[in-house]
Design a protein that fits this description.
The chain is of the alpha+beta class. The chain has helices spanning 16-27, 56-69, 121-128, 147-153, 160-163, 198-201, 236-247, 284-297, 308-321, 340-350, 379-395, 407-410, 422-433; strands at residues 32-36, 47-51, 73-76, 93-96, 103-107, 112-116, 133-134, 170-176, 182-186, 211-218, 220-221, 225-233, 255-259, 274-282, 302-306, 329-334, 356-359, 364-369, 400-404. The longest helix has 17 residues, at 379-395. It is globular and about 70 Å long.
């Protein structure tokens, strides 16, 4: 895969110990550490220097230092997404916003909040729940997920069915560029630069354009009631038909997830059947009506309503297992929602008993395989199988992203796939925002 690298970016050779010393000398002992093992793991690095700025001004100074020294930087929050995407080219420093975790402004009457990038989304939502409000995002992973990480990876979980993605709720952002400059977009700043919608531009940029430092969100009123219903079938087709009927009805689930048999988060489900989990967030009377209507639409299919504690445990396990270390492969595929059943059939023919999950409302399918998936195939055969699955997605107007795979696979296949005419625009944006290619080099689409 071609890697984008500015000819002017020529970092000088320097030891990790020297980087740590420089950071501690300038910012304090607790502002840098030499991490090892799985902590802030990036690629096959055994040790890595990690910096922890405490606010946007300190982040700016750290980036100014890194730029002056030519250090290539990988931005991070809690570090839970650093293995996702392409293998980064050589880097010198991870900069984590984990210590930048304050709520800067929260106006319940206005349904808006501004928080630092290292704020944990789950922690903020627990606080906002005291005012019966929340940011309606549920990124996959555990409670360590930070606001900055959610924005940078455009991570959206099952609630995207009703509430959309981070783009729909982000109204303002403050970022620090590779050279230390601080810029703001959206929110109280109405005008953007050079015609770009900068606030949205950083969503899903994987830290390749700037380091997200602060974010402003719209909030929603927290629903007063929640219930989860699950429908079962021995085949995906019956459940996909039910999804189509629900989509054409007045039933409005907040989440609608299709889950294949023997899923690791299915301890509360019938593991031998396909399951369609419907999560409802509303007032009690409305939910009861929607449950009855969903049962009518799914007549002939076995269904059950999970108790409150069971429902909470199921969705928690579902979220956390999505990025489980046991998953050696994590693939994200897309197709038209109307093609979901045919797409699943395609995948079933390509690989036996694929461990799949799907956002049933929008056709996004995730395949999560442990070391037994594609077992017995040599590296070249595995590559051919992944290429086949990608062609199936493309044939239905979609794409396949390889979020996690062994390094031997990532080094031989474009994990993002072909982006078509957008490739040139993305390269131009990288050149404009990070001309020295110091931020997350090689991680993202088109090798930028």
């Amino acid at each position: 895969m071609e890697n984008y690298q500015s000819e002017t970016a020529r970092p000088r050779a320097i030891s990790l110990e020297t980087i740590i010393y420089r950071l501690r000398e300038m910012f304090g002992e607790d502002r840098a550490e030499l991490a090892s093992g799985g902590h802030f793991c990036v690629g096959d690095e055994r040790e890595r220097a990690v910096a922890f700025p405490s606010n946007i001004e300190e982040l700016s100074e750290m980036m100014r230092l890194a730029s002056g020294e030519g250090w290539r930087v990988i931005p991070a929050g809690a570090g839970t997404w650093l293995e996702m995407g392409a293998r980064p080219t050589r880097f010198e420093l991870v900069v984590s916003t984990a210590k930048m975790n304050r709520a800067l402004e929260y106006e319940p009457a206005d349904l808006t909040a501004t928080v630092e990038a290292g704020t944990r989304l789950a922690a903020f939502n627990r606080k906002a729940a005291e005012d019966r409000q929340f940011i309606p995002l549920d990124p996959f992973g555990d409670e360590r997920s930070t606001v900055g990480g959610v924005i940078a990876t455009a991570s959206a979980g099952p609630l995207r069915c009703a509430y959309g993605t981070p783009r729909d709720w982000l109204i303002g952002v403050a970022v620090v560029h590779a050279d230390g400059r601080i810029t703001r977009a959206g929110g109280k700043v109405v005008k953007n630069v050079a015609g770009y919608d900068l606030c949205k531009l950083y969503v899903g940029s994987f830290g390749t354009l700037a380091v997200i430092a602060e974010a402003s969100f719209k909030l929603r009123a927290l629903p007063s009631c929640e219930k989860t219903a699950v429908f079962y079938s021995r085949d995906a087709e019956s459940l996909c038909s039910l999804v189509a009927r629900i989509t054409d009805s007045d039933v409005q689930p907040a989440a609608m997830e299709l889950i294949s048999p023997y899923d690791e988060a299915s301890t509360l489900l019938d593991a031998e059947h396909f399951a369609l989990a419907l999560r409802f967030l509303n007032d009690a009377e409305t939910i009861d009506w929607q449950l009855e209507e969903a049962a009518r639409l799914g007549s002939g299919l076995r269904n059950a309503t999970l108790g409150g504690s069971d429902a909470g445990e199921f969705w928690r396990a579902y979220q956390e297992s999505e990025t489980s270390p046991r998953a050696e492969f994590i693939l994200k595929l897309s197709a038209l929602p109307a093609d979901l059943n045919a797409f699943i059939a395609d995948i079933n023919r390509a690989t036996p008993r694929p461990p799949l999950r799907a956002h049933a409302a929008n056709g996004v399918v995730r395949l999560r395989g442990d070391d037994r998936w594609l077992d017995g195939l040599k590296t070249e055969e595995r590559l051919n199988k992944l290429a086949e699955i990608r062609r199936l997605a493309q044939a239905r107007g979609g794409q396949m992203l390889i979020l996690r795979a062994p390094d031997e696979i990532k080094s031989q296949i474009d994990v993002w796939g072909e982006v078509g005419p957008g490739r040139g625009l993305m390269r131009a944006l990288k050149e404009k925002f990070d001309p020295e290619a110091l931020l997350n080099p090689g991680r993202f689409v088109a090798g930028i």
